[in-house]
Amino acid sequence: MTASQRRETANETVIWTEGLTKVYPRSSVPAVDGLDLAVGRGELFGLLGPNGAGKTTTVGMLTTRVVPTGGRALIGGIDIVARSTLVKQLIAVVTQQNTLDRSLTVRENLYFHGLLFGMTSRRARDAADELLARFRLSGHADDPVFVLSGGMAQRLMVARAILHRPAVLFLDEPTAGLDPQSRLALWEVLAELVAERQTILLTTHNMEEADRLCDRVAIIDHGRILALDTPAALKRGVEADAQVTVQLAGAGPEPAAGAGPGTASGPSAAADGPGDALAELLARTVPGVVRTRVADGRVELQVNGGDRLLPRVLEAAESGGFDVADLSVAETTLETVFIRLTGKELRD
Question: How far apart are CA 248 and CA 323, in angstroms?
């Protein structure tokens, strides 16, 4: 089942918020400011934003750890404030930190979790064995958890989280710090869960992760949603299908700056540095440049269409007297969308 089919067949809104707001004491600026959100059953929904954007506070309210100061939110139709204890029984949270019980074995971490949520001993044992096999951990069932690698520990935390069949699984940076092989293994697990109609809300700094996994993505900053759509639609909205990166020889990091073709009108000498001068030149001379950005000693061009793009950029730069050390082109990414909306780069 494709992502669009999952959304079309979702007949139940599992996460719903209206005007959800949080203002912390001693602060006049809302951490979350009037958030309206609806996530359907079986949807993998991504929440992206820079540090301090309001992601953590949003998840904190939805998981009942943070009390809202305004608005409403429902999980599975249940009010997160009025019936917070019941909401806790419907959700599961996997954080960046290893929260496994180090005094228990791998199997025991699952078994006792089942008992905690009211399962009979036999049912908890059967569910634990089933998940051990599914998450490829059966060979470590009787091992203490401290011998697990980071990837195996993360898979075990996800297995434990879904053992009681939660309505919503909240994942906070689930692959942060994992090696590429472990990251891919966890991505496969998450894709399988969504195929089974498990609703997942994911916060991540990994743009590839959001692009590959999420049905929809919300980009949040200053407590407000700046954009919300499928990854493909968000990238189309940039109105550029490629990003060209130019590295000047001997160029060091420069303060981030940006210019669009419509603003690059003055002489190159008026720019703040060689990167700014090159950005201004390329915006004027290369067809299809939508906008430019100077950061970390490189010039980034967002370009829509254009034949022989790299030769044109190189020719324009060299004709202007710039010594190019490196030149590359890539498709427009979610990070491009993010930077355009917030002016900040996502960092782990």
Answer: 6
